[in-house]
Amino acid sequence: MTEENQTLAQRREKAESLAALGVNLYSNGFKPAHAIKELLPKGEGLGPQEKEEGEPLYSVAGRIMAMRKFGKAAFCSITDKSGQIQLYIKKDIVGDELFENFKKWDIGDIVGIEGILFKTKVGELSVQARSIVMISKSLRPLPDKWHGLSDVETRYRQRYVDLIVTPASRETFKKRVEIIRLIREYLNGRDYMEVETPMMQPIPGGATAKPFKTYHNALNMDLYLRIAPELYLKRLLVGGFERVFEINRNFRNEGLSTRHNPEFTMLEFYQAYATYEDMIELTEDMISSICEKVNGSMKIIYQGTEVDLSPPWTRLTMDESLVQVAGIDAELLKDGDKVLALAKEKGIKLDPQAGPGKAKSELFELLVEEKLINPTFITGYPTEISPLARRNEDNPEVTDRFELFITGRELANAFSELNDPVDQLQRFEKQIADRGDDDEIHPELDYDYVRALEYGMPSAAGEGIGIDRLVMLLTDAPSIRDVILFPHLKAEVRHQQNNEE
Q1: Per residue in 144-191, pLDDT tens?
Q2: Could you tell me whether strands 110-119 and 125-136 are parallel, antiparallel, or unpaired per DSSP bridges?
Q3: Which pLDDT belongs to residue 144?
């Protein structure tokens, strides 16, 4: 029998013995009247061994995180969502039977207690128990408090344990909730309307990615988990909703990495009668102000590097970045054949139909992207790789589009929207022709979206921001798995526990 299974067996035996004594291991009647943080200021004026005047009775509940047992007394620390406090259980106060039962309780058990506030000899605020009740018996021991969950994969797979024993992890997810709340507050304050669009779509559109495929029995048709909500949100612009946003789950059946999870959260928002330059100003203001509210400053440390989110942020065209950051000659970028030759020289593999626009984007990704540490808007994206963006009126080879990079990672993508149905149809047709017979990325033209544009969509701009990557940035998290409560992992190898026991 392994040490782990031996510990499990011992805990189960202890639970059975408590149940035999009439202890309800999973009681459902205790309702704490107070959060631990409410008690802490009440004891600030108490001196060592001093009780609160009038001895008011408090009731709290939480998980036992530490325990010291003596002959006729015991100390334990419990935590709830708001904080931690010490409990003092004395035999001659709670009674012989309850005290003897309590001595069999374990770290990890969830308990409820009623008692008074006092301070110990060393001045630690405590609740002296008048009564204590078992709420939930823990059958598995918590990780050692000094080491916690040292195995990273176990932290991700058993997030429930990680949250119990790792305060920093709890704070990360509290901060994530706060960031999303502030995003909603910011957009609501600018007259954006939050909407919901389909998670299952007949045509996977709005981005180029491999979708997850399913089948609807009643409709007798294939459906796809959405890779992006973009085309549905822009249909709403056609319908007269002039400012819309959605904080949504997207699904892409592709690889996993420190930056990618198959299921991830995106903010997408669209505004009629706006341009990508309006999106630049909004993005700069929204992210910098949220950072200041969450972290108290617009300057943060990400993985040991200082990042300054104070506006204004750097703006470069893709060509300018290739010249200034990658050191490519500006004249070379004007010659499509030379651009393609340089990409080949750098070991970039391009499809036969790829043009200089695609080559430039690949050179940018290889030579520039990871060097953009402070916020940088990259504009002037080639039309060749921007099928939904509006062409620039002065230079139709590029679009009115930007991507935002911080700490070498793309955080946002935005553009002035293409609202010409003829141009859109042609670009869809070219996009599908370039893919050829692609079973990985479903090549199907969204005629209904073209039809929607034929009714007339106002000039508009839209943007997508990766919520997970934004949370990574603002919480100093090295991996996307650190900011997703339950990230996708390979199937767990299950041991034959029963046989080992």
Answers
A1: 754 556 778 888 999 999 999 999 999 999 999 999 999 999 999 999
A2: antiparallel
A3: 73
Q: If you search the block for the tokens 């997810």, which residue do you land on? A: 173
Q: In terms of domains, do 120 and 170 share one?
A: no
69 in a structural domain: yes
- Collect all residues with Cβ–Cβ distance below 8 Å to 204 and sequence separation of at least 6: 211, 224, 226, 227, 442
Whole-angstrom Cα distance, residue 386 to residue 13?
64
Q: What is the pTM of this model?
A: 0.92
CB neighbour list of residue 401: distance below 8 Å, 6 or more residues apart: 276, 379, 380, 381, 386, 389, 413, 414, 415, 416
The total domain count for the chain is 2
CA distance 359 to 337: 10
CA dist., res. 40 & res. 428, Å (int): 62
User: Is residue 340 a part of any domain in this protein?
Assistant: no
CATH of the domain at 42: 2.40.50.140
> Encoding tokens for residue 112?
């409820």
Give 189-225 pLDDT, tens digit per residue: 999 999 999 999 999 988 888 999 999 999 999 999 9
Q: Is residue 491 part of a domain?
A: no
pLDDT (average), residues 11-31: 94
For 365-389, the DSSP string reads HHHTGGG--S-EEEE--BGGG-TTB
